Amino acid sequence: MKSCSRRFRPIGKGRMQFAHKHPRFARFRPSGCDDRGSTLIETLLGITLLAIILLAATRGAIGSLSAASIGKERSDATGIMSAAMAQAVALPFPYLVSGLNPTADSLANDPNIVKSGSSYMLELHGNIAPTAASTIPVSNTNSSEPPLVPHVTAVLEGINYTVDTYPTTSTSTPGLVTVVVIVTWKSPTGGKDQVVGEDGIAAP
User: Fold this and answer.
1) What is the pTM of this model?
2) What is the pLDDT of residues 8-54, one digit of tens each?
3) Would you list the domain boundaries of the chain?
4) Distance CA 104, CA 107 (A)
5) Burial of 9 per CB tally in 10 Å (0-12, 13-18, 19+)
6) Per-position DSSP letters for 144-183, written without gaps between them
7) CA 179 to CA 166: how far, in whole Å?
8) What is the phi-psi region of residue 175: left when phi exceeds 0, alpha when psi lies from -120 to 50, beta otherwise?
């Protein structure tokens, strides 16, 4: 970078003054001055500031999209759960009392079912607090009776949802079948989630 040279010229008797300071030359820059270096620094600072602003805006947009996606997934799962519950409740009460079919359906591989002697018990885990075990009746002989046989189905609603349906009974409430429906899915944004619903159906 060139240094700024200052030229002197006489202004009146016996006095010297910087030529570029005189009013006649105020509008002119000193000869030899080069401010390209400062201009480059200002440009780099501007680019850096713009990059920071764009990064913050991008993160905010991604966060908003992620929240909207999670909300839609949960809304879809709730709708799927309600549909499965309505299908189960619409079955004749004797079908609900007979429960699941361990011959036509695989119960041993279900993590929500625990076998105790000859009884099958429902124990909910995952993202919800475990509940007291309830007995799952398993005297159903039908080879197909949705949503009880099979009691696990898959639903595609943008993403894959797994629907588990369990009719349960308890000795403390005879004549009542409680249907539990669990909808589970793996979110594209990461993690696994589920919604759970239950409804009690009394004997007619």
Assistant:
1) 0.67
2) 455 455 544 444 444 554 454 555 555 556 788 888 888 888 888 87
3) 73-202
4) 9
5) exposed
6) -BTTTBSSEEEEEESEEEEEEEEEEB-TTSTTEEEEEEEE
7) 6
8) left
